[in-house]
Specification:
By secondary structure, this protein is mainly alpha-helical. Helix content is 65%, strand content 0%. Among the domains are: 66 residues, no CATH class; 44 residues, no CATH class.
Length: 173
């Protein structure tokens, strides 16, 4: 008996059907505006599934039982574009707030690591703080070297050879 294992991100037909049957919230929060308000349930479902990034337009058309050309037309609609942009902006704001919270937590953890009894851990924590604070150590070696091209070197050799021959010819006279 062999069972096929699925990746954690893939969904079965049954899971997709259950996803399709779930109710979509039209409004989140206290504000009166929601980007999906006034759209058909299929279009709302399309936008939600499209936003996950897990489905191609062809797969979405199969899931929603809509012709692929309809999907393409929906994507081109101004209200759909605006709804997707609004939802992406809201997601971005949410992620930004969460990252700021994590930043404070990370700074506090780094502060605790600086007091570590293990010298290597404390050293690395101090080094990370200094590096990120713009005090990263630099290794610089200054080299002053003039580089001459092959042509310049050849001209120099030719001039020295001509000068040497001219000087030897002057002595013979």
């Amino acid at each position: 008996m062999s069972t096929k294992r699925e990746s954690p991100t893939s969904t079965t037909l049954q899971q997709e059907s259950e996803l399709m049957e779930r109710e979509l919230p039209i409004s989140t929060g206290t504000d009166d505006y929601h980007p999906l308000e006034g759209m058909s349930p299929k279009m709302q479902r399309f936008i939600h599934l499209y936003m996950t990034g897990q489905y191609t337009l062809n797969k979405l058309s199969q899931l929603l039982e809509v012709h692929p050309n309809t999907m393409s037309n929906w994507i081109k609609r101004a209200d759909v574009k605006e709804a997707i942009q609004d939802m992406q902006d809201a997601t971005h704001q949410l992620v930004s707030v969460q990252l700021k919270t994590l930043t404070n937590k990370a700074v506090n953890r780094l502060h605790d690591l600086m007091d570590s009894p293990i010298d290597g851990v404390a050293f690395q924590a101090v080094k990370d703080v200094l590096d990120r604070g713009g005090h990263k150590s630099k290794q610089e070696i200054k080299i002053d070297k003039t580089i001459t091209t092959v042509e310049e070197r050849m001209r120099e050799l030719i001039n020295n050879t001509i000068d040497a021959e001219y000087t030897e010819g002057d002595d013979d006279e």
